[in-house]
């Protein structure tokens, strides 16, 4: 669990600028008048925000994401690893991933909502929205806004668990076996290769779900919430106007983000696992391998 959490923290810090940029590309799918704009225009507006405030934009949402490593990952990894232990499996499988994605969603969603709200209005204000203000606005509605987007999140979390937490390590082991290699260097290389193979599949599956989340979680908390069907209609209108480019806004940057995220997470996880395993062996808490 410590290795999984540590890897997740390393991943969060490393991929935050890419995560922030991708959200803005998807968020600026609509212009000030509420109509869909060309994906090129959305990318230009997102880039303009980063040029004006590169540090603020890159670090926006990082604090709730790091806090979310505990609030989001402890339930998810707890169910994933707990189910694996109870089932007697050596490594997490697809049933463990399914249970983790469903049971952890209520804990994950509020953090993702706060993270997106922090950078939702940077285009007009030039600064991230304070967490205290987000919580005050949510409290006025009995904190119900913090659970906007839970349904698409479950699908997103399922794809993330199946492909990222289960599929990627299995693919990495397969590549190492086929190459007949072992060791730290080989592990890092095969980790990157496995992430590069899994990431495009992951992004194609999750990009529309990510769009739904952004649509549902970036409108004003004080205003009327956007439901799943309404968000789907908005994506449908985007597709009608711009074709598949409208549906898969941010997919290119999403693939880059997925490769960076998966590689950082598993590299950090494996490094911490090796380190703590060595410490336990040195302390006599487990026999040496």
Structure description:
By secondary structure, this protein is mainly alpha-helical. It has a single domain, classed as Mitochondrial carrier fold (Alpha/alpha barrel), CATH 1.50.40.10. It contains 14 helices and no strands. Helix 4 (62-71) runs antiparallel to helix 7, helix 10 packs antiparallel against helix 11 and helix 11 packs across helix 12. The mean pLDDT is 87.
Topology overview:
Layout: H1 2-27, H2 39-52, H3 54-59, H4 62-71, H5 73-87, H6 94-103, H7 105-119, H8 122-125, H9 131-139, H10 150-179, H11 184-217, H12 228-242, H13 244-247, H14 251-282
Helix pairs in contact: 1-2, 1-4, 1-14, 4-7, 5-6, 6-10, 10-11, 11-12, 11-14
Quick recap:
With 289 residues, this protein is mainly alpha-helical. The protein is built from 14 helices and no strands. The protein has a single domain (2-282), classed as Mitochondrial carrier domain (Mitochondrial carrier fold, Alpha/alpha barrel), CATH 1.50.40.10.
Shape: globular
Using only C-alpha atoms, the radius of gyration works out to 20 Å
Task: Give a count of the beta strands, DSSP E runs of length 2 or more.
Answer: 0
Q: CATH H-level name... which superfamily?
A: Mitochondrial carrier domain
Keywords for this structure?
Mitochondrial carrier fold; 289 residues; mainly alpha
């Amino acid at each position: 669990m410590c290795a999984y959490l540590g890897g997740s923290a390393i991943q969060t810090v490393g991929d935050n600028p890419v995560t922030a940029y991708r959200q803005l590309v998807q968020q600026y799918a609509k212009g000030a008048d509420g109509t869909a704009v060309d994906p090129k225009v959305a990318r230009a507006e997102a880039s303009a925000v980063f040029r004006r405030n590169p540090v603020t934009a890159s670090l926006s949402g990082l604090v709730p994401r790091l806090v979310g490593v505990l609030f989001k990952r402890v339930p998810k990894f707890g169910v994933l690893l707990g189910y694996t232990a109870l089932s007697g499996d050596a490594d997490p499988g697809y049933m463990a991933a399914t249970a983790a994605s469903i049971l952890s969603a209520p804990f994950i969603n509020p953090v993702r909502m706060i993270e997106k709200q922090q950078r939702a209005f940077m285009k007009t204000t030039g600064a991230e929205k304070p967490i205290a203000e987000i919580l005050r606005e949510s409290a006025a509605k009995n904190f119900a806004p913090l659970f906007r987007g839970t349904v698409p999140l479950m699908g997103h979390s399922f794809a993330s668990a199946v492909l990222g937490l289960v599929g990627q390590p299995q693919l990495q082991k397969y590549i190492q076996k086929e190459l007949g290699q072992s060791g730290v260097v080989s592990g890092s290389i095969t980790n990157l290769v496995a992430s590069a193979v899994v990431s495009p599949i992951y992004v194609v599956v999750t990009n529309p779900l990510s769009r739904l989340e952004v649509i549902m979680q970036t409108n004003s908390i004080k205003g009327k919430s956007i439901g799943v069907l309404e968000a789907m209609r908005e994506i449908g209108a985007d597709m009608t106007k711009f074709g598949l480019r409208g549906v898969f806004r941010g997919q290119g940057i999403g693939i880059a983000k997925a490769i960076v995220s998966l590689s950082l997470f598993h590299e950090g996880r494996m490094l911490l696992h090796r380190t703590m395993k060595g410490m336990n062996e040195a302390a006599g808490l487990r026999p040496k391998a």
